[in-house]
Give the backbone structure.
Amino acid sequence: MKTAILTLVTTFAAALSLQAQTTLRIRGSDTLGAKLVPQLAEAFKKQGGKVSFDIAAEGSSTAFTNLASGTAEVGMSSRKVKADERTLCRSKGVSLTEFEVAWDMITVVVNKNNPISDLSSKQILQIFAGDIKDWSEVGGTPGPISVYTRNTSSGTYKDFMGLAMKGREYGTNSQKMAGNEQIASEVASNSNGIGYVGYAYAGAKGIKIVSIGGKAPSPAAVKKYPLSRPTFLYTNGAPTGTTKEFIDFCLSPAGDAIVAKGGFVPLSIAK
Amino acid sequence: MDRSTTPSRPPLRSVLLRSRKHTVLGVDPQHLIRWFFGGNASIAVIVLVLIMIFLLREGIDFLPTYRHELQTYRRAGLEFCDIIDQPLQQNQALSSSLRQAVSASLETLSKSARDRRDAAFLLKRQIEDKTTQASESLSQALEKTPPLPPEELAVLRSELQKATATAAASLTYPDLFNAAEREQLQREFAALTPEVTDLPPLLQTLAADFTAKDHEARTKFASLVQAQEEFEAATEPLQEVVDELKQHAQETKEKAVEFEVLETNRLRLLEAAAKENDPAEKDSLTKEAEASFTEAVNLPERIQAITSRATELREQVEKYAQVIEKAAAVLPTDAGTSVARTMVNDVREGIPVHAQAMRQAAAQLDSWRWDKPVSIFTVVGAFFFGTSWITNSSWQDFFGFVPLLSGSLVIAFIAILIATPVSVVAAIYTNQFASESEKELIKPVIEFIQAIPSVVLGFIGISLVGNLIKDVSEWSWLQWVPGFPIQERLNMFNAGCLLAFMAVPTMFSLSEDALNNVPRAYIDASDALGATKLQTVFRVIVPAGISGILSAILLGLGRVIGETMVVLLVAGNRIAIPDFSAGPGAIFQPAHTLTGIIAQELGEVSRGSSHWQALFMVGIVLFVISLLVNWCARAVARRFEPHKA
């Protein structure tokens, strides 16, 4: 009986002592937060530092709402902060500091068996806005086009609207998926499907990349590709303590190497 | 006589030992127990009331907030631009049909050439997929500096050669190519290497063939192609003017919104500074308030810039209408295939309608007033009868909940349609016809279904049920079913099937209970009259238990309407009213639901914004629907209750 209590107490104490480390809460983009930021977090933990990471990737818009309400230390966003989001944060006493962490290329993908391999920017705009409804209109095998997009909390969603669609809304026939992997799997299983994913997910099985006006996405040609965009990390004011160490790590050459391996374009190439 | 006897007291021992009434805190324990049970019951009622109050408090502010937004929409001039912009979108649908008609006609000449070219490229890609490893190691070796010794490169090259040869031999070449071409393809594919960037000669010939045929087709159908191009180009001058006005209106709106946010912030800080006693804090708050300052927007001036161009806009609309009507007259009657002919006819009929709509819209421009107030009834109508739910838009957010409601209702309807026969018939069988051992098997198994987590069912829906339905829809002997072959594997039917599966245990248990509660007297009377078992079941027992069965169905409906996880994963998430012109086939289209939209969008809304409040309004509607369904269930149960003998 006594030994049982003693063991219980010592385990409890050990567990408590392990809890004595900081938790870094990171919220925001699915493009960054599904694979890249967890990998950066792992590498950061390996090089020492008692930090535990709490990463939730529900879309870039959640980064700003969480930073404004104080429930996150770092926000990941695959788009630049909007003016009204900055104002909202300002009104809650949060001033945002922006750190560019990687460049991403939004890749338009179609099913592997689709004969189309190139589309002009105008055609892409018309397909995603719902003006072009059938593959025969762009020279493919006749069939209605199934458009898959991200949902409204995604930064990729907004970026694509700004870069490829000149601000026009998506067509009402588009289906809103929760993340890059879902779009990839739906396009892979639907021979009439088209969608967009981050460059890191474009190598998935069953889908193929469509070049835009002849320009195909590749890290070397990141500046020329029309749908390249920078991705950011945001903090409240100037970062301090563990937050500062983590941001510094992400911007260091070691972080750069992880970004390159993760399928993004590191700042060393993009700058 | 002096009796100095005190009233007799019982001896101490018996006083201590006599049994007293137990009291806890001076209260009878029976009362305490009763209060404990009653308190738990009232906690449930209190929590329910608190939930309703909370929902109402967050959601009821939606109407004034949305009204304010619609007011800004009007005052900044966005509504003015939309008067022309909205009907102009119809042009796109007509253009799309024309484009399809053009390619259907062009296909008559160029289809075979295109099929051959596409098949050849597909084969090339298949070979590249199979030999990725070998070709990547070769290309990486070639890029290395200093260059590798030629022997190693030769080794890599021969490996690649072997891989491509095997791949080329293993492919099945379609009948589009004759035997000689197939051999040539196989030879050329076997020689594919990343070092040569030019296409193999046969592929080049096929591509050139197609371009030639396409050119020939375009000259043959020149009038149709030209009509289509002219039609598309007709919108450009009008769209330019509208785009300029839209940009101006958007800037006005952004400035107005920024001013509002910063002004409220400034006033809040000033208020806080006035109440603050510490002078340093007061100073910093006042400074912050001053920093949060922007100029107010001069709305009348900015609106004038837009409305002054109304005449120009009207002229452009008139010009546009004339151009497209001319184009309609010029559309060729003979357009190659019958498919193309029907499409061209549809467009020819649609153009005058569209032109008329544009002219009517232009006529509205004059009577539009920027300072007309938006009444609360318009807002209520915009929410409850609005047909588009657009959020996080750079133009204007619209919160119309009809597409969500239609999605929820159709999915619930499908689920109940599937679940009712299954569960009621199972209940009748289990209660009346099954043997004891069968009952012991069926009842626990069906009730176990309730224990399956809904997210697991959603996962099964994505990975198994979706593919199953899609494969079945491609069987040739089922093509008579409306809607087959289906386009999307995540659709309303998929969600309805899974929800039916989830609703069956509830409906089964309740129906079975209802049948069990039929008074024994009825069954005995029926037997006494000489009825067979089947007659007893279907003419006496089931009608007597109908109230319970109906309320079981309604409770199943309530369960189904409120289910979130399954519909979020499986229903396809398309925010649009299903296209019922496809008839019953409309159930194979994707849709979004009331519950799904809350789950999907709640993560991104900032607390207190109009989007947040709109989602709470949707929550209130869901709550009211559930209450209604439950109330109906109880009302039905009461109404059809068999009279107590």
